[in-house]
């Protein structure tokens, strides 16, 4: 590698470092703005619309950033912020985007987190299939990178999905695996959730004693939550959930006495100011139901009504359906068939609207028994829904296992494809770099030779032109000396002699005869005329010498311009400011001026096809303006800027510390203007 190639490489590295520093500075300033926007978006006390707008603004900034670790962190943070605002679609869009960025960057941790975020968003949208797919994908990615930080939570969420579709055995199995991971991590709140979920799964399986055991284990975790600083409202709600679930176990066993005991034990410890209204209404309805089932009708149906009104006021649609079912069953037990049918029909219509198959089954079963008029219809509905549920359960049994298997298969195929693509990409890059290196070396060598040749030619031309100037200066100096010598001879020799003759004639003129006097006076007058003429010639010679010195370079330029010839028969005109003091200008300036005009004229002769062309050189205050124009075919400056001729013009203009302006359009001629300071 020669020295020119080393210079080029060094310049490239300097530009790269400068660009990186500038990019880093810009990113640092923008990061502060993004951080402030995130703080607003994550402020739970702020208006949700303001929070969403802040996250949107942050997203609009970092979405234009390059794919680096900081940018991916911003995307993950925005995903969580949108999820907290229940903006599931925006959160999903962001998580899908950051997953793709993780794939591009081969960042498995980002991919795992993005898949996890997608799973919890689909859970929020009650899309169990998609949620399970992304949870399984995230779980495998975490296992692959040997990171168990979220595998327990992912297993818990998968268990919730199994529970929601009624797969209680698989729910229990998945939750037990998650519990082991969560206990190792000592995540108290997730341990509570896991024990509570296992108890619910066992309740669904009919394993009542074990269900009570796990509910009580969950209840025991509340003391640890209190020690860890969790607020009382969260602990009160978790406690109420446990008591409500244990009451459900006793209801399933038809042990209404113990169910009443559990609910009555729970209510005194419940702070109605902090407990969730929907949970309080559920417990109130369940307590009323077990009292009714145990034959204790004190406070009924008012307790049912209070629960129903509370659920209706907060928009708890599934809770309203449950309350209507309880009221229907209560009035049926009290032989008030009309009101029983009314509430059961309310329950049936509400269950259809929220698509709750279990509630439809319960409503149709009761209506089929007590509604003599429409009983057959509801019996048919009961059979249809029951069969549909059985088919759904059958389809679901293997579906999530298939999803998990297909997720693993897709992940394995993707990894194999990534490895294959990496090999292909690596080989391609090596080949391309090798070819590019050969081409660059060849190009730089050729370019260096061309530039060296051009530089040598320019140097030779400038030396020749410098010699021409020196020779011209010598000639002018000799001419000036000769003129001065002649002037001195005329003044000091001839004039003095003539003056002496004139004095003699004046002396002779003292003779008195008239004829001599007249003639002598004529001679004297003639000598005076000759003396005046010689003196005038002497002064003219001196003035012409100064004039020729001042105009010589301008004359050279004018001759060069007006003597141009080309194949287009272009007429050339020159306008040179006579006020320019060429003598005071150093030869370097003159050489560059001469070459600039010469280069511009050469381009006109080669390409312009002009009828007329002109060069104007004018002095404006302390600057010199050179304007070369033609009425030819013109050109596009952007396309032609890489040409050698225009590069030479720029180089010479730069050496004069001047400014080069090129104006041209196809078909509209061209104008080249160079302005540079004098002195």
UniProtKB/TrEMBL annotation:
Alphabetical UniProt keywords: Kinase, Membrane, Signal, TPR repeat, Transferase, Transmembrane, Transmembrane helix, Two-component regulatory system
Keyword Membrane attached: yes
TPR repeat coordinates: 240-273
UniProt entry tagged with the keyword Iron-sulfur: no
Signal peptide: 1-19
SMART domains per the UniProt record, alphabetical: TPR
Origin: domain of life: Bacteria
Transmembrane domains' residue ranges: 423-444
Domain Histidine kinase: start-end pairs: 593-679
PANTHER family found in the cross-reference section: NITRATE/NITRITE SENSOR PROTEIN NARX-RELATED, SIGNAL TRANSDUCTION HISTIDINE-PROTEIN KINASE_PHOSPHATASE UHPB
Protein's name according to its UniProt entry: Tetratricopeptide repeat protein
Organism: Flavobacterium arundinis
């Amino acid at each position: 590698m020669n020295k020119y190639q080393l210079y080029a490489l060094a310049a490239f590295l300097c530009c790269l470092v400068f660009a990186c520093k500038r990019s880093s500075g810009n990113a640092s300033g923008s990061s502060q703005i993004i951080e402030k926007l995130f703080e607003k978006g994550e402020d739970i006390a702020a208006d949700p619309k303001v929070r969403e707008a802040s996250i949107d603004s942050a997203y609009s900034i970092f979405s234009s950033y390059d794919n680096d670790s900081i940018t991916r962190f911003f995307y993950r943070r925005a995903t969580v912020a949108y999820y907290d605002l229940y903006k599931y679609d925006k959160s999903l869009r962001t998580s899908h985007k950051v997953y793709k960025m993780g794939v591009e960057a081969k960042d498995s941790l980002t991919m795992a987190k993005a898949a996890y975020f997608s799973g919890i968003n689909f859970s929020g949208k009650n899309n169990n299939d998609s949620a399970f797919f992304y949870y399984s994908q995230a779980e495998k990615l975490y296992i692959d990178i040997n990171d168990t930080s979220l595998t327990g939570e992912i297993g818990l969420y998968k268990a919730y999905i199994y529970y929601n579709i009624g797969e209680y055995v698989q729910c229990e199995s998945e939750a037990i695996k998650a519990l082991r991971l969560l206990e190792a991590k000592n995540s108290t709140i997730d341990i509570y959730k896991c024990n509570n979920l296992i108890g619910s799964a066992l309740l669904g399986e009919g394993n009542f004693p074990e269900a009570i055991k796990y509910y009580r284990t969950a209840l025991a975790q509340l003391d640890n939550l209190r020690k860890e600083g969790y607020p009382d409202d969260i602990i009160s709600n978790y406690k109420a959930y446990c008591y409500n679930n244990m009451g459900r176990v006793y209801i399933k066993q038809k042990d209404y006495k113990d169910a009443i005991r559990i609910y009555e034990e729970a209510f005194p410890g419940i702070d109605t100011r902090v407990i969730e209204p929907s949970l309080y209404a559920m417990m109130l309805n369940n307590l009323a139901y077990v009292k009714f089932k145990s034959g204790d009708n004190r406070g009924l149906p008012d307790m049912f009504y209070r629960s129903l009104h509370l659920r209706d006021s907060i928009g708890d649609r599934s809770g309203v359906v449950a309350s209507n079912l309880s009221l229907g069953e209560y009035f049926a037990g009290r032989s008030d068939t009309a009101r029983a049918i009314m509430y059961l029909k309310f329950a049936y219509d509400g269950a259809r609207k929220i698509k709750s198959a279990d509630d439809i089954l319960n409503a149709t079963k009761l209506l089929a028994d007590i509604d003599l008029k429409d009983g057959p219809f509801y019996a048919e509905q009961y059979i249809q829904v029951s069969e549909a549920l059985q088919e759904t359960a059958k389809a679901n049994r293997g579906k999530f296992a298939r999803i998990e298997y297909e997720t693993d298969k897709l992940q394995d195929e993707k990894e194999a494809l990534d490895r294959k693509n990496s090999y292909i990409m690596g080989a391609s890059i090596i080949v391309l770099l090798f070819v590019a290196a050969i081409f660059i070396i060849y190009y730089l060598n050729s370019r260096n030779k061309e530039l060296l040749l051009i530089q040598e030619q320019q140097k030779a031309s400038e030396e020749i032109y410098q010699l021409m100037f020196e020779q011209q200066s010598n000639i002018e100096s000799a001419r000036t000396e000769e003129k001065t010598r002649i002037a001195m001879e005329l003044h000091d020799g001839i004039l003095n002699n003539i003056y002496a003759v004139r004095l003699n004639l004046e002396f002779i003129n003292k003779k008195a005869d008239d004829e001599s006097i007249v003639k002598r006076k004529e001679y004297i007058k003639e000598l005076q005329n000759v003396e005046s003429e010689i003196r005038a010639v002497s002064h003219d010679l001196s003035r012409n010498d100064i004039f020729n010195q001042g105009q010589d370079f301008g004359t050279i330029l004018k001759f060069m311009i007006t003597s141009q010839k080309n194949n287009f028969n272009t007429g050339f005109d020159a306008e040179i400011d006579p006020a320019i003091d060429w003598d005071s200008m150093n030869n370097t300036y003159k050489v560059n001026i001469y070459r600039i005009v010469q280069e511009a004229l050469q381009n006109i002769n080669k390409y312009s096809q002009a009828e007329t062309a002109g060069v104007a050189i004018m002095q404006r205050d302390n600057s010199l303006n050179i304007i070369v124009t033609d009425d030819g075919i013109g050109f596009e400056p952007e396309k032609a800027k890489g040409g050698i001729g225009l590069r030479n013009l720029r180089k010479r203009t730069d050496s004069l510390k001047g400014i080069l302006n090129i104006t041209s359009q196809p078909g509209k001629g061209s104008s080249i203007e160079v302005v540079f300071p004098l002195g």
